[in-house]
Amino acid sequence: MSSRRQVNQARRLSALSKLSVLSVFPLLLFVAAGCSNKPAETSASAASPSAATQNPYSTAQIPTPKTAPDPATVDGFDGTRAFEHVRHLVELGPRPPASDAIHQAQAYITSQLKSYGCPVEEHDFTAHSPALGEIAMKNIVAKIPGTSPGIVILATHYDTIRIPGFIGADDGGSGTATMMEIARVLCSRKEKPPLNVWVTFFDGEETQADFGSKEDVKWDDNNATFGSREMAASMALSGDLKNVRAMILTDMVGPPNLKIKRETNSTEWLQKLIWSVAVRLGYANVFVNDAEPMTGDDHFSFIRRGVAGYDIIDFSPGPTYWHTTDDNLEKIDPKSMAIVGHVLVEVVPEIAKRPHS
């Protein structure tokens, strides 16, 4: 999630001192890695004790929380699987655009989506950052065909902000994992959804600044949300944008005790629809009635072009770990991602029931 507020200048570099523990118990780690319930593609750092020891971002010593709901109770959404997606991403390390780590993340996301049987498109483009110049970026879209021509975009960003040591478990990781699991659920169903669902992963949402030397560069529309702006513009040119019934963004949906407030700068009817579904499913304690406006995120790239958009985000009163190296796997609860995934799967048919203006 980009800098909607003043970025905290006192960022802490992660010590990750657990490497010494890993080197003491290589056999135990080998057994744990072999028995873990991970998605098909696993990271090199989790594949062997020697690789884990060499990787400063290894999370092999962090067990999967036991709070994931039974997938049968949440439309098949597997919170444990989503958690393991976050684990894989953070083990890659910081993932700013055009980095080696984000290239690995792109390969992982794409391979997972294809393994689910999803039709996948990769859209490469070049973005211009005032701070860093030309940057190669990539949007990834799983296009799940529906029974009518309308489109619902369910989206997230998968890049991380350029802060040394920032691995973005919640800010970048949780939304990505949630969307990957939603894609698996929808692509595995025999029945098509009532609308075409485009599960989308945006590159370049975060500020493209080198925070090690350019602290004066702030988040704004010229230096962030590159992926969503690129996609919205491309869809406007192709004519697809007029078929979009709604665009729903997930950004920072992983923390325990999740509280999603009403984002008052999003489309009102879409907010009310999401809340009605959440209440029906028993999540009134998560999708609460408090309000908090956002001034910038990927959904605005579509709202500005006349598309109904909404941002599902837990950013109040502002996570203490936001844009710090404390945004690690310990901040992620698979139950929170499962709740958001459950709501989104149920929202799609409700959008289909609304007349399209």
Can you characterise this structure?
- This protein has helices at about 20-25, 25-35, 45, 50-55, 80-90, 100-115, 170-185, 225-240, 270-280, 300-305, 335-355; strands spanning about 120-130, 135-145, 150-155, 195-200, 245-250, 260, 285-290, 310-315.
- By secondary structure, it is of the alpha/beta class.
- It has one domain (about 95-355): Zn peptidases (Aminopeptidase, 3-Layer(aba) Sandwich).
- It has a 6-stranded mixed beta sheet, with helices on both faces. It has a two-stranded parallel ribbon with strand order 6-7.
- Strand 1 (about 120-130) and strand 2 form a beta hairpin.
- It is globular, with a radius of gyration of 19 Å.
Summarize the model shown.
This protein has helices at residues 19-24, 26-35, 44-47, 49-54, 79-91, 100-115, 169-187, 226-238, 268-280, 300-303, 334-353; strands spanning 120-129, 133-144, 151-157, 196-202, 244-251, 260-262, 287-291, 309-313.
Features:
single chain, two-stranded parallel sheet, alpha/beta, 35% helix, 6-stranded mixed beta sheet, Aminopeptidase, 357 residues, 11 helices, globular, 16% strand
